[in-house]
Amino acid sequence: MNRESLYRLLYEIKDGNVTPTEALEKLAILPYEDLGYARIDHHRALRRGFPEVIFGSGKTVDQITRIAQGLKEMGQSVLVTRVDPSAAASLELTLPEGEYFESSRLFFWGRRAGRHGGRVVVATGGTADLPVAEEAAVALEVMGNEVERLYDVGVAGVHRLLSRVEDLRSARVIIAVAGMDGALASVVSGLVDVPVVAVPTSVGYGASFGGVAALLSMLNSCSSGVGVVNIDNGFGAAALANLINR
Amino acid sequence: MNRESLYRLLYEIKDGNVTPTEALEKLAILPYEDLGYARIDHHRALRRGFPEVIFGSGKTVDQITRIAQGLKEMGQSVLVTRVDPSAAASLELTLPEGEYFESSRLFFWGRRAGRHGGRVVVATGGTADLPVAEEAAVALEVMGNEVERLYDVGVAGVHRLLSRVEDLRSARVIIAVAGMDGALASVVSGLVDVPVVAVPTSVGYGASFGGVAALLSMLNSCSSGVGVVNIDNGFGAAALANLINR
Amino acid sequence: MNRESLYRLLYEIKDGNVTPTEALEKLAILPYEDLGYARIDHHRALRRGFPEVIFGSGKTVDQITRIAQGLKEMGQSVLVTRVDPSAAASLELTLPEGEYFESSRLFFWGRRAGRHGGRVVVATGGTADLPVAEEAAVALEVMGNEVERLYDVGVAGVHRLLSRVEDLRSARVIIAVAGMDGALASVVSGLVDVPVVAVPTSVGYGASFGGVAALLSMLNSCSSGVGVVNIDNGFGAAALANLINR
Amino acid sequence: MNRESLYRLLYEIKDGNVTPTEALEKLAILPYEDLGYARIDHHRALRRGFPEVIFGSGKTVDQITRIAQGLKEMGQSVLVTRVDPSAAASLELTLPEGEYFESSRLFFWGRRAGRHGGRVVVATGGTADLPVAEEAAVALEVMGNEVERLYDVGVAGVHRLLSRVEDLRSARVIIAVAGMDGALASVVSGLVDVPVVAVPTSVGYGASFGGVAALLSMLNSCSSGVGVVNIDNGFGAAALANLINR
Amino acid sequence: MNRESLYRLLYEIKDGNVTPTEALEKLAILPYEDLGYARIDHHRALRRGFPEVIFGSGKTVDQITRIAQGLKEMGQSVLVTRVDPSAAASLELTLPEGEYFESSRLFFWGRRAGRHGGRVVVATGGTADLPVAEEAAVALEVMGNEVERLYDVGVAGVHRLLSRVEDLRSARVIIAVAGMDGALASVVSGLVDVPVVAVPTSVGYGASFGGVAALLSMLNSCSSGVGVVNIDNGFGAAALANLINR
Amino acid sequence: MNRESLYRLLYEIKDGNVTPTEALEKLAILPYEDLGYARIDHHRALRRGFPEVIFGSGKTVDQITRIAQGLKEMGQSVLVTRVDPSAAASLELTLPEGEYFESSRLFFWGRRAGRHGGRVVVATGGTADLPVAEEAAVALEVMGNEVERLYDVGVAGVHRLLSRVEDLRSARVIIAVAGMDGALASVVSGLVDVPVVAVPTSVGYGASFGGVAALLSMLNSCSSGVGVVNIDNGFGAAALANLINR
Amino acid sequence: MNRESLYRLLYEIKDGNVTPTEALEKLAILPYEDLGYARIDHHRALRRGFPEVIFGSGKTVDQITRIAQGLKEMGQSVLVTRVDPSAAASLELTLPEGEYFESSRLFFWGRRAGRHGGRVVVATGGTADLPVAEEAAVALEVMGNEVERLYDVGVAGVHRLLSRVEDLRSARVIIAVAGMDGALASVVSGLVDVPVVAVPTSVGYGASFGGVAALLSMLNSCSSGVGVVNIDNGFGAAALANLINR
Amino acid sequence: MNRESLYRLLYEIKDGNVTPTEALEKLAILPYEDLGYARIDHHRALRRGFPEVIFGSGKTVDQITRIAQGLKEMGQSVLVTRVDPSAAASLELTLPEGEYFESSRLFFWGRRAGRHGGRVVVATGGTADLPVAEEAAVALEVMGNEVERLYDVGVAGVHRLLSRVEDLRSARVIIAVAGMDGALASVVSGLVDVPVVAVPTSVGYGASFGGVAALLSMLNSCSSGVGVVNIDNGFGAAALANLINR
Q1: Lowest mean pLDDT segment, chosen from A174-183, C69-78, E161-170, F38-47
Q2: Which residues contact E98 (CB under 8 A, 6 or more apart)?
Q3: Within a domain: F114
Q4: What does the buried/exposed string (b/e) look like for H24-40 if buried means 16 or more CB atoms within 10 Å of the residue's CB?
Q5: What is the pLDDT of residue H14?
Q6: Which of H127, H205, H208 sits opposite B38 (nearest CB)?
Q7: pLDDT reading at G21 higher than 50
Q8: How far off is chain F from C20, nearest CA to CA, in Å?
Q9: Residue A114 lies inside a defined structural domain of this protein
Q10: Average pLDDT in the G28-32 region?
Q11: Are A56 and A138 members of one domain?
Q12: Are residues G157 and G133 in the same domain?
C-alpha cells in the first residue's frame, strides 16, 4: 500500500465507489496470514527482493512443515535454513519437489530467481569453515547470483590468497568466511575495491570463544569496506550480498 | 602492477629494452613512500577507489601533518578522521585550502570525487548519535555520494520512522546509526529492500557497555540484509556504503 | 503476625490469658514446615498473593513430589515450573487431579485464582519464543488474569505489530518476549502507555550469547517504562505482571 | 490519529468537505516538530502519560535548551535528566520558571501532574545510592506520585529493613536502589506483595564492574515480582513505577 | 625438614656422623613419591593439617585408584572429590573399607580426624544447592568438625533465616552456599560476628551465567567478614573453614 | 534484643510494670539513628565485634563528617576507608584527636581494641600493592591484631618467599595481596596450614583487566584454604582476618 | 621462488630460453595442490621447517584421510592433531605405517626429523593436564627434539618444583602446562633464564571459565620471558618451542 | 647458592672451618636487599641473563629512584619501564649518566650487554603502535641484540609486508606489534620459519576493547609458531625475544 495506491483509494471514496467502512477495512487488514504460532508475511517477497526464509533452528519439524506448506500454497518459494537430515526427510514428504543441500543444511522449494548482477566470491580461511560458506553460496545461487567458491585460502599461507587476486578483484562483492583469528577479512579487503561481507565462524577452541575472536577481529578490520554479520550466519551474509549485487 | 603490465615488462626484457636487473628492481620496489613511522600507499587510491585515509586518533599532530603533507605532494586528496579542534588548527596551517568539519571531526583536503551511484540515507536513533552520523555523512559526500540525513528517528516513536518510509525506500544503501538498544537497524532493514550498514554508537550508560549492547543487537538483527561495523565507526560505514553505491 | 496481632498478643499477656512462655513460643515459631531439604513457607500465599512456586529445574523428581505433597496437604495450590514430561508423569501419580501444560512445562494442582484486573498481552518476536511465552501465559491464567497471546509480531516486519496496536493499547500490562536483537520491547513500549515486562530469550546463536544480546537490548530500551526479568524467565514475568495487574 | 478519527476523516472525504489531497497531507504529516537534530514528539504526552523527557547526557547545552524551548512553546512540560550544574545555569536563563534539583541532576519546567494512585517507596541500600534514588523520587513527584524515601536500609543490617516492613507493605510499588551485591531487591521483594522495580547502581569498585554485579544479582533475584532497569537509571525506574501506579 | 632438624643435620656433619655427600642427598630428596603422572606429597598431611585430597574430575578411574592406593600404602587417609557412582564402584573394589557419600560425591578411606574447634554451620539458599553443601559438610565431618546443616533458608523468605539466628550466632564459622542472586552471604554475615565462607553455586539459568552472578554478589558483599571460594567448590569451603576452626 | 531480654520484657508486661503499648514501642524502635541519608547502626559494634566502618568513596566529605560525628557522640570508635588527603583535612577539623594514615587512606578516631589472638602476616607480591596492603595492616592493628608486613615477596623470585617460610608458618592467618598473575596466594597457601585471605589488586595493565586476572587466579587456587575478597579490598581482608583471629 | 631464482628466470627470458608467456605461467602457478576443500601447501615444509599439520577437529574423517593421502603422495610427513580413536582407526587403514598416540590424540606418518638443538622440558601443574602436555611432547619428539617430562609439579607444593630446578635450568626452552590458577608459568620462569612457553589448559571448573583464568594469569606473569599460546594448544606450544630450539 | 657451593659449604662444616650455626645463617640469608617496600634481587642478573627491571607504573618517583639507587650501588645496570617525562627528570638527577628514551618511556643506566645472537625484527601494523614497539626495540638493544625496525606494514596493504619478506626471513626472532584486528602476527608467522612474539596493543576503539580483539586474534593465530605477551607489553616481548636470541 504505497502513497499512490492510497491516493487512489481516497479518490474512490470521494467518487462513491468505496464506502469509508470498506476503505477502513482495506487499510486495516494487513497482508499476512495467521497460523497461530507464526505470521506469514506475503508482502515480504516484494519488499525484500526474496521470499520468506524460515530459520529452522528452534522450530519443531511440524512448525517448519506447516509454515512451508502455507508459503507454497501462496505460490511463493521457500528457503529453510539449518535443516538437519531428519527434518529434511520430513520436509521432502510435504514438498517432494524441494531440494535439500546437505553440506549447507538448506532446503529449497520453488523457482530460483533469474541471474542478476555481478559475481559473488565466497572465500574461506580453512576447510572447517565449509558448512557456513556453503550456506552462503547455495542461498546466493538460489537468489540468482553467480557464485565462485575460493576455499581454504587463509592467511597462514598468504600466497595462496595472492595467487587468486584476479578472481577477487573481478567480483562485485566478496564474502569472507573465517574462524580463529578472522584475519582473512582484513587481508582480502585490503586487496580489492569491492564491499566485503565478513562472516566469523565458530571454528576454533579455547580463546576463540565460539567465534568471538574472529568476530572482534573482523569488526576491528584495519582495512575499511567490511560489513560483519553474526557468527556462523552464512545466510545473513548471502542476503546482504544479494542486496548489494542487485 | 597487474597481470597485463607484468606481461609487458617481461616482453621488454625479451626485447632487450629492459635488463633483468632493472626488471627485478621494478618488481621489488613497491609504490609506497617511507616516512619512517608511516608508509604512504600511493596505489591505494587506485585500488580502493578512495585516497588514503588517516585515522587521526593515537597519532601526534606532527605525524598527521607530515603524512598529510606527503599525500598532498603526491597530488592525492587527504581525509583525516577524529581530528580534535586543536589538531585541526595545526592542519589548517599546513594545508590552508583544507576544510575542517567540526561536528564530524573530519579534515579534508583535495578534490571531492564526482557524484556517482544512488542516494545514501544516514539515519540516527537519537540526537546524541550525531557526531558519528556526521562522520559518515561528510565522508560520503567527499567521496561523491548524494546523502540524505534522517536524524532522531529512533524506535521509541516508531511512527517518526514510518512517516519517512518513502525516503528510506528510495535509497541505494542506508546507514543506521544508533546506540542504547540499537533497534533502529532491525526496524529499518525490515522496511526496505536495500543493504543496511549498521553503526552501533557508544551513546548510553550502564549496561550499554560503551556500545556493546547496540553492537550485539545489530549483529543479531532479526531482519537480514544488515552489515555491522565497529562501534562509533562512522567513517567505516561510509567507506562500505561508498563501495556498495558505486 | 502484623503490628495489630502483636498488640493483641501483648494484651493477652497483660490480661493473664497467655503466659510469657507461651507468647515466646508463638513469636518464635515461624510458619514454615521443615522437610530437611526444603522449608515450605505457608505464609507466602498470603504475603505474595500467590501460592508457593516450585522451580523444578535442579531438583530431583522425588524432591519435587514431596514438596508438592506437603503443599497439597496444607490445602495450598501448587505450581511447578520447568517440569519435563517424565517428571510430569511422576507428579501426576502423586497429584492425579493436577494438570500438565506441555508447551510451557508447567504443572498445576489446585484452584485457579479468581479473575482480577485488566488484560495482559503476551507478545513474542518469533515462533521459537513460544515455550517462554506460554510459561508466562499459563501462569498468568492460573493466577486469575485474562491473557491475550500475540505471537510472532517481531520488528523485522513492523507492520505486523502496528496492525495490532489497538490490542496492545487495551492491555493493563504487556509482556514482550523476544530473543536475538530483543527490539520488540522498545518498539512495543513506544506505542503504549502501560508497563511493559520484557523477557529476553535464549533464542538465537553466535553473538546472541544465549540471550545476552536481547537482555542488554532490553535493559537499554530507548523507550522508558520497561522492566526486565532474567533470560527465559517466563514465570518471573508472569509473577511481576500479576502483581501489577492486581 | 486513532481508528475513530480516521473514520471521521474518511467520511469527510466522502462528504466532499475534505479533498483526497488534503486528506493525504493530514495522514502523512505526523505530529512532530523537526529541529534538524531532534524530532519533538508532541503526541507522546498523550500516548505515554507523561511529557517528553530529554536525556541530557551526550547532548550539548545548546541542543538541550532548544529542544526544551520547543516543548515549552507547545505548552508542554519539560523534564531534563543528567543536567550538571553548569548546564542547569544555562537552562535557567531560557526557562527561568524551571526548577533544578541538584541532588538528582533533574531540571523541570511546567505543571506537576495531579496526584494519582498509591504510594511509591524508594529504598536504597546505602548512602552512596542517593543520587540515583533522588532521580527516581523527584521524577515520580513531578509525575504526580506520592513518594516515601527509605534510604540506607541495606541488607548488611537486615533489621534496619525489617523495622520498616509496614512502610514497605503499604506501598503500591517499591523502587529498590542498590549497588555492590544488589541484595536489597531480593530481600524487599520477599517481604511484600507489590511489584518491585530494581535499579542497580554503579556504587562499588573492583568486581562490582560498574554495577554489573548488582545488575546480575537483581536479574537472578530468588524472589519473583522484580523488574530490573538499567544501571543508575533512576528515571527509568520512575517511569515504570508511574505507569504501574496509575 | 624444618629449621631445627636442619640444624641437627648440620651438627651431625660436624660430628662426622654424616658425610657431606649423605647430607646432600638428604637435603635433595624431597618426600614425595613419583607415580609418573602424579607426585604424592606425603609431607602435606603434616603441613596442611589434612591428608592429600584427590580432585576426581578430569582424572581417569585408573589414575584415581592408583593414587589412592599409593596414599593408603603410606598409611594416610584419602579423600576423593567429584566421584561419580561408577568411579565409586571401582574405588570400593580397591579400598573396600572406604565410604562413598552419594549426595556429595565424596569417597573417603581412613581414620576421621578427632573432633576439634567449635561448630560449623553450613547454610544453603535453596534445595538445589544441596550437592555443593553436602560436599562441604561431609568433608568437614571427616576432618573432625561438628557440622550443623541449615538448608533452604534463602533470602526470598528472610524470616526463615531470622528464626535461626541463634544457631548462626553459636557457630565458630559459617559456610553460606547459594546460587542465583547469592544474597545469602551478605544477609548471614550481617547477622553474626564470625567468619563467613561464601560458596557461589551454578544453580540458576540465563543471566546467572553458571554461578557468576552469585560469585560477583558475594565478592561485593555489603557486609564485611566474607571470604569467597570458587563456584561449586564445596570442598574448598570446607578446607578453609577447617583451618579457621582449628 | 535477644531471646532472654525479650523474655524479661514479656514478664514485665505480665507483672504490669510495662504496658503493652510501651512494650510495642520498645520492640519497634531499633537501635539506629536516622540522619536522613544514613542510618547509624549502634548495635553493630556489639554484633560484629568492631565499630561501624564508613566506606569513604562515593560519599561527600560533609556526609562522612556528619556520620563520623554521630558515631563519636555515641562514644563509638570510627574507621573511615578510602579517605583522600583533602577529605582527611576536613575530618581532622571535626575529629581533631583522629589519626590519618596516608599510605592506606584510612582515618581512625577512638580507642584501639585490645590485643587478641595470634599474629597476622600481610604479604604482597610487589611494591605497587602497598596501598591495599597497608589498608589491611592498619585496620588490623586498630582492631587489636599483631601484624607483620612481608612486602614484595612475589613468585617471580620464589626464593624471596621461601626464605620467610618460618614467618609465614608462625601466623594464625595470612593476607596475600597481589595483582597481575595473583600467584602469590596459591604458593603461600601451599606452604602453610593456616587460613589465607587473598586480596587481588588492580595493579597491572592490559589483560589484567583491573585485577580480574588476579581475582580469577585466586579463586582457582590449586591449593585449598584460600578465601578471596573483592579487588583492592584491603579492609575487607582485615575484617575477615580479624574475625578468624579472635 | 626466491630472489635468486627469479633473477635466473628473468635471464632465461632475456636469453630466449623461456618465452614471456611461459614465465608468466611459472610466476602465477603457486606450489599448492587443490583438493577443492583444502589447498595443500607443499612449500610449507621448506618454509616453516616442518611438514603440513592437519588440525583434525572440525574436519570429517574423509577430509582428513584425503588430505593426508595427498601429502603422503608428495613424499611429505603428516602430523594430524586431535584425532579421536575412531578416526585413528580409519587413518591407520589408509596410512598403515602411521602411528597413533592415544594419550595425545596425535597421528603421525613419515620420517621423524633428525635430533637438533637442546632439551625441551614439558612441565605440568597437575595430572589432568596430561593430554595437552603429551600433545606437546610427542609433537616435539616427532620434530626432532629431546624432551623431558616433568609432570604434576604444580605450585600447591612448590618444593616439588624446586627439587627439579637443575632439570629446568638445563633446558633450552620450557613448556609450562597448567590450568586453574596457571601459576606454574610465573614460578618456573622466575627460576630459569630460558624462554618459557605457557599453555593454559581448560582443567578446572566454575570461575576457571574453561581455561580463561589460567590464560589471564599467564599473560600477566610477574616474571618476564613467557610467551603464551591458546588454551589447550599443546601442538602450538610444541611448534613454537621447536622454532626456538633450532 | 648452587649444588656445588652447597657441597663446598657442607665440607667446610665437616672440616670445622664453619660452624653449623654460621652455615645455617648462610643458608638462610638469601641474596637480596630489603628496602622495606621492595626487595632487590641481586642474583637475578645472573639467573635471568639481565639486570633487574623496574616496572615504573604504579610506583612513586621516590620509590623508583631509591630502588634504582640501590641497584646502581651494587654495580648493576638498571632499566626502568613506563617512565613519564617528569619521573625521568627526577631519575636523571639521581643517575645523571642514565639515558631516557622518550618514545619508549624507558630509562637506562649502566653498561649495555655485548652483542649476541642474530637479528630481531620489530614490526608494527600501524603508526600508533610505535610507543610499544620502541619499548621492545630499545630494551632489546640495551640487552645486546641487533634490532631492525619495520613499522607500519599492516595487512590492510599486504604488499607492503610482502616487499620486506627477505628482511623478515633473515631474522632469528620477530616481534609483531599490532592493535585492532591483530592480523599482523598470523600473516608474518605464515611467511617465516622463526619464532614470532606477538604483542597486542590497545590501539583502536569500540569493539577493540583496549586490545582484547588483537589479543584474541593473536592467541587464535591460524599459523603456528606464535607466542603472545600481554597487551602493550613491549618490554615483555623484548625479554622473551632476548632469551630466544641467546
Answers
A1: F38-47
A2: E78, E91, E92, E107, E108, E109
A3: no
A4: beebeebebeebebbbb
A5: 82
A6: H127
A7: yes
A8: 6
A9: no
A10: 40
A11: no
A12: yes
What pLDDT is recorded for position E29?
36
We report the CATH number of the domain holding residue E143 as 3.40.50.1970
Q: Do H59 and F206 lie within an 8 Å CB cutoff?
A: no
SS3 B173: strand
Residues B138 and B237 in one domain: yes
Q: What are A203's three cell numbers?
A: 571454528
Cα H149 to its chain centre, rounded Å, is 16
pLDDT digits (tens, 9 = 90+) for H162-213: 878 888 988 999 999 999 999 999 999 988 889 999 999 999 999 999 999 9
Highest mean pLDDT among A176-180, C88-92, E70-74, F39-43: A176-180
Residue D114 lies in a domain: no
Chains F and A touch (3+ CB pairs under 8 A): no
Q: For residue H143, what are the domain limits?
A: 119-245
Which three three-digit cell numbers place residue C122?
503476551
Q: Are residues B21 and B104 in the same domain?
A: yes
Torsion sign across C-alpha atoms D29, D35, D38, D43: negative
d(CA H36, CA G222): 20
Q: What is the distance between the alpha carbons of residues F182 and F213, in angstroms, rounded to a whole number?
A: 7
Domain endpoint, select from A77, A109, A141: A109
> Taking the mean position of all CA atoms in its chain, how far away is CA D152?
22
Mean pLDDT of E125-148: 95
Of the residues B127, B152, B155, B189, the best mutation for testing chain C's interface (the one with the most C CB atoms within 10 Å of its CB) is B155
Chain G contact for F27, CB < 8 A? no
Domain assignment of residue A85, yes or no: yes
pLDDT at G42: 45
Residue C175: pLDDT band with limits 50, 70, 90: very high
Please check the confidence at residue A30 and state whether its pLDDT lies above 50: no
The closest alpha carbon to C244, from C182, C171, C183, belongs to C171
pTM metric for this prediction = 0.87
D-chain CB neighbours of F202 within 8 Å are 206
**Number of domain units in chain D:** 2
Return the amino acid letter for A79.
Answer: L
Nearest to D206 among F63, F67, F230 (CB): F230
B13 interface with A at CB cutoff 8 Å: no
- Phi/psi region, residue H39 (left: phi>0; alpha: psi -120 to 50; beta: rest), is beta
Does E24 or A112 have the greater pLDDT score? A112
Give the mean model confidence (pLDDT) for residues B53-67: 85
**Residue C48 contacts D, CB cutoff 8 Å:** yes
Nearest beta carbon to residue D187 from set E158, E180, E213: E158
Percentage of chain B modeled with pLDDT above 90: 49
State whether C136 and C175 are in the same domain.
yes
| In a shared domain, residues B62 and B159 | no
C-alpha span between G176 and G121 (Å, rounded): 8
Any G CB within 8 A of E215 CB: yes
Q: Do A226 and B240 touch (CB under 8 A)?
A: yes
Read off the pLDDT band of C14 (50, 70, 90): confident
Examine the fold and report which residue of D87, D109, D131 is the final residue of a domain before the chain moves on: D109
CB contact under 8 A, E222 and D180: yes
Answer yes or no: do B84 and B123 share one domain. no
SS3 label, residue C209: helix
Interface mutation vs chain G, best among A129, A152, A167, A203, most G CBs within 10 Å: A152
Taking CA–CA distances from D218, the nearest residue in chain E reads E181
Q: At what angle do helices B3-14 and G3-14 cross, to 10 degrees?
A: 60
User: Can you tell me the mean pLDDT for A16-22?
Assistant: 79
ipTM above 0.85, yes or no: no
Contact B210 H206 (CB under 8 A): yes
Of E53, E192, E240, Cβ closest to residue F227: E240
Same structural domain for residues H101 and H134?
no
Of C6, C7, C14, the CB nearest to F14: C14
